[in-house]
Predict the structure of Putative Phage portal protein, HK97 family.
Amino acid sequence: MSLLDRIASRFGFERRAGGFGDLPGIALTGHPVNSRTAENLSAVLACVSAVSTAIASLPAYVYREGEAGRDIDRSHPLNRLVVRGPNPWQTWPDFVEWLVASTLLRGNGLAEIVTDPRGAVVELRPIPWDWVSVQLLPSGRLAYDVTEQMGIWGATGRLRRLLQGEVLHLRDRSDDGLLGRSRLSRATEVVGAGIALQEASGALWRNGVFPSGALSVEGKLSPDQLKDLREGLADVHTGAARHGKVLILQGGMKWSQITISPEDAEILESRRFSVEEIARLYQVPPPIIQDYTHNTFTNSEAAGRWFAQFTIGPWVRKLEAEFSRGVLSEGDSRSMEFDLSGFMRGDYAARWKAHEIAVRNDILTRNEVREIEGWNPRPEAEKPPPQPSAPTAPTVQPEA
C-alpha cells in the first residue's frame, strides 16, 4: 500500500481498484465530504442508523428445501452464527448493523469468512473498508488486500490477501459491476452544502454579538480605544451564554439596532431543506428520521409502510443474495432469509388481524400462529375454528 493510500484512508476515504477518482472529496463550499464528516450531520447519521438498525432487528433463518416444502435448518453452521453471534465480539444484530452502515457510508461492507477444516463457516469477521485495497486478477476474480491499521487484531500493518470466495462483500450501486460506489461520492455537493450550513449556523451562535447592531461615536477612535472596545464587547457579549446582556455605552456613543436573524438569512429554512435532500439521498421518508415538517398521522403510517417496502426490502434482498452466494455452498438447497414480518411486531392490531385471516383460510394453523408469537403449542388449539351457521329460512305457516 502506498503512502498516499495510507494517508487518505486515515481521513475516511475509501480505496477503489481504479484509485481515488470516485471518492468523496471537496465540495464547492470548500468542505471535505467523507464518511466521518458526513456523519456529523444528524440527518446522515439518522438515515444510516434507521436503515441499518431496522434490518439488524429482523429475524434471520437458514431454510432447507425438501420434497414436502422447506424447513428451518437449525443445525446449519450459518444458523448457529445467527443465534450465537458471528464472531466472539459481536452479536448477529451488531454485525448486520455494522455491515449495512459501512455499505451506506462507504459503498462497500466487507467481512472475512472463516471456515473450519471441513469448509463449514465458523466466523464472520468484520473488515473496515478503509483497510482494503481491491485488485482485479487476470482470472477475472477479485482479490482483497487487507492492511490492518488499527483494531483488535493489532496494528501490525502487515498485508494479507483474501480471495473473492473468502469474503462476504455487500455493495451499494456499482458503476463498474465490481465495487460499490458510496452515495456520499455521488452527491458530494448535497452533503457539502449541509455541512456548510451547519458550520454557518454554529458560527452565528459562536461569534454573534447580542443584541446585534452598530456603535457610532463622534470623531475617530484611537487604535487603543478601538482595541479596548472590541475586547470589551467580546468578553461581555460574544457567545450564546451571554445572549441578552445589557450593553452599557458612554462618551456619547450611540447604538443602532441591525435586525438580522437566522430566519432572515434563510439559514434555518435551508437546513430544513438539507434534511429533506439527505433523506431523499438515502431513500428514507422524513418522518422516519424525526422530520415532522409536513407530517400528519396518515402519512406517518404510510411512511412506515413505504420505508419497509422500498427502503428495507431492496437492502434485505441484496443481503440474502450475498449470503446465499458467499457463505452457503454452491448448489446447496439452502437459502438465507430475513423475515420482514418482524416489522409488524409493533402493530398489534394488524398482526392479529393477519393471523385471523391466515387461520380462517387454512394458510396457518393455530399452533403455527402460537409458534410465530413465541408460545408453546396446545393440543386443543388444533381444533378447527367454529364455522358460522347458515341462516335458516323463516317458517311459513299455512293459512287456516
Observations:
- The chain has a mean pLDDT of 79.
- Residues 297-326 form the longest helix (30 residues).
- DSSP finds twelve helices and eleven strands in the chain.
- Residues 213-258 form one domain.
